[in-house]
Design brief:
2 copies of one chain form a homodimer.
Chain A lengths: L16 H5 L2 H12 L2 E2 H8 L3 H13 L3 E6 L2 E6 L2 H10 L3 H15 L7
Antiparallel strand pairs in A: 1-3, 2-3
Chain A binds a DNA duplex (30 and 30 nucleotides) through helix 4.
Chain lengths: 117, 117
DNA sequence: ATCGCGCATGCCTCGACAGGTATATGCCGA
DNA sequence: TCGGCATATACCTGTCGAGGCATGCGCGAT
């Protein structure tokens, strides 16, 4: 049975969400964690990683607040944390006008000679 | 009057969207470009950048497909390109279940003792 | 108490950048 | 044609992060 959250206490080398997401291996880890929480060993098996590499990537993801670990005996079970994803969403939101505008223009173009503006 | 698109022809050192977005300066550039297209000099002024730095960041953004430039005499006017943002959106979409689930649980918790599940 | 397992961490090396300076290039105006 | 402007690019330097290896550390089982 899980016991305690493994907090990233203090403000030690906080990592930006963007920096954490810049690495493909870390994005792969997140993809797997989206399915369900995984222990480090499971991630090592499924993603064919060296164990130290996995631990380091997970540490980075932790410092970015993207994941958190629960302690279960010798195992650390990592799970996603929603908050940074919400921030990403918020960052992306203003850019959404870009493609919705593009789609609008496309739409206008399709309905071309019927009405203008 | 603008003349030509400044294509990133060939597959020379394509940069991942994530890599391009990992840099804060580049994100600042995108924020400014969201307002309207800007020439390099305008970006240099508004963001207090060295001119070579601006050109280099813009080159990276170009290789990531996030911006494109139109040539106007000696000036290069950079504007946003929607496509990578749509891809970002697509990447983020599956994670949306995360916080919608969290909100659902919160909601359920608020309506707590009224109905279960 | 001891061993083995699961994981984290320290050290090293290397390649990838960011910032700065200097310089090359295309284009306009006089 | 010439000078100057706007931008790109080459070069250098310092920094940071990823991968690989070895090792430390906590916990459970025997």
């Amino acid at each position: 049975m899980p016991r305690q959250v493994y907090a990233e206490t203090g403000t030690f080398a906080v990592v930006s969400t963007w920096t954490a997401l810049a690495d493909p291996t870390r994005r792969a880890i997140l993809d797997v964690l989206r399915e369900r929480p995984h222990a480090v060993g499971e991630l090592v098996d499924r993603l064919d990683l060296a164990q130290p590499a996995a631990s380091k990537h997970l540490a980075t993801l932790r410092r970015a607040g993207l994941v958190h670990a629960t302690v279960d005996a010798q195992r650390r079970v990592y799970a996603l944390d929603p908050r940074p994803f919400v921030e990403l969403e918020a960052w992306l939101a203003p850019y959404r006008a870009l493609w919705s505008d593009a789609l609008d223009r496309l739409d206008a173009h399709l309905h071309d000679h019927q009405e203008d503006r």
